Amino acid sequence: MKTVDSYNFAGKRALVRVDFNVPLNERFEITDDTRIKATIPTITKILNDGGSVILMSHLGRPKDGPTDKYSLKHLVTPLSVVFGRPVKFADDCIGQSAIDLAASLQSGEILLLENLRFYKEEEKGNVEFAEKLSKLGDVWVNDAFGTAHRAHASTAVIGQFFEDRICGYVMQAEIENAQRVLENSERPFTAIMGGSKVSDKILIIERLLDKVDNLIIGGGMTYTFVLAEGGKIGNSISEPDKVELAKEILIKAKEKGVNVYMPVDNLCADKFSNDAERQVVASGAIPDGWQGLDIGPETAEIFKKVIEASKTVLWNGPMGVFEFPNFAAGTNAIADSVVKATEENGAFSLIGGGDSASAVNNAGYGDRVSYVSTGGGALLEYMEGKVLPGVAALQ
């Protein structure tokens, strides 16, 4: 795989697939620019070499073609600030404006293309659409690990039209850090799995059972495991059809000598709201009409000890509904512990994208753990052992 460091971009127009699918508020202001900042090293290297950059990305899930809400034009000003130079904008990713602006691009200049998903052909992996995009640049750089699990036109199919297919720094770092955790982990290795659904994490949990010493289970998926052990969960979120699966995971973990830690208490609410009535209840004894929205304080202490004694930590998924400040304590306690393990115990910590990344960044801990993935679903699929089309296209 060719990397950015191994390539000289002098005089080249680099067509760079980035993941600028960033959250915007009602005023179209970016509320979390983690993904944009992650691409700075790749783009800077190309520009410093004397190349020019054509950025292509998707934003949101537009259903009916061009929609103002999902236009990448909202990113032009913030990108110009980030890169310290004006960013040009093509109002159609394959239209005449894109062709003309790309053709006239000078060394050191940046062009942003309109949302790729304004064309249905992008997600369908349409070859003709990919070919039209490819004509805009001389070299293809894929730095969008977050979409590497999709066989879309710009993330995978386009590769066939380029002799030079380059792996960007984000993509390279994601792969290397995931490999470090999976293949070169120091012991004890603790995986923290949160989030709402067992079904979303089943494949990665099964793979990790061959690699970890400790498996911590939190978040909404906990309650499916509680059902598997015959406990009461009140109105808590669960997947009753996955109870047998949860039982199998617990049996497999025991057979493989993996220590499984689940909540011993939960912070419960009488409704799904930040201002709900709250009470701490023993796990498996949640009364009717109440729902678990966070791990309890006793659980946080138990999890904390396990994490802080670890040498490798993988965290994917929050411990509760951390978007509600009154139910964020559990997730914040985990973030504190992961930082402590990293800084005081020399652990290697990988935060696995999505909500966990938001929790760590919101707490101001992003630079105090070893690596925060921007990959989300792509990281999970990579760790499950699946071949990612966006990675395969670079090889």
From TrEMBL:
Ligand binding (substrate): D19, F20, N21, R35, H58, L59, G60, R61, R117, R150
Location within or outside the cell: Cytoplasm
Binding annotation for ATP: K201, G292, E323, G353, G354, D355, S356
Reactions catalysed according to its record: (2R)-3-phosphoglycerate + ATP = (2R)-3-phospho-glyceroyl phosphate + ADP
Gene Ontology MF annotations: phosphoglycerate kinase activity
Pathway: Carbohydrate degradation; glycolysis; pyruvate from D-glyceraldehyde 3-phosphate: step 2/5
SUPFAM superfamilies recorded: Phosphoglycerate kinase
Major subcellular site: cytoplasm
Keyword Plastid recorded: no
Signal sequence, renumbered to the chain: none
Alphabetical list of InterPro entries matching this protein: Phosphoglycerate_kinase, Phosphoglycerate_kinase_N, Phosphoglycerate_kinase_sf
Alphabetical UniProt keywords: ATP-binding, Cytoplasm, Glycolysis, Kinase, Nucleotide-binding, Transferase
EC number: 2.7.2.3
Similarity-based family: Belongs to the phosphoglycerate kinase family.
Subunit structure: Monomer.
Name of the protein described by the UniProt record: Phosphoglycerate kinase
Species of the source: Arcicella aquatica
Originating gene: pgk
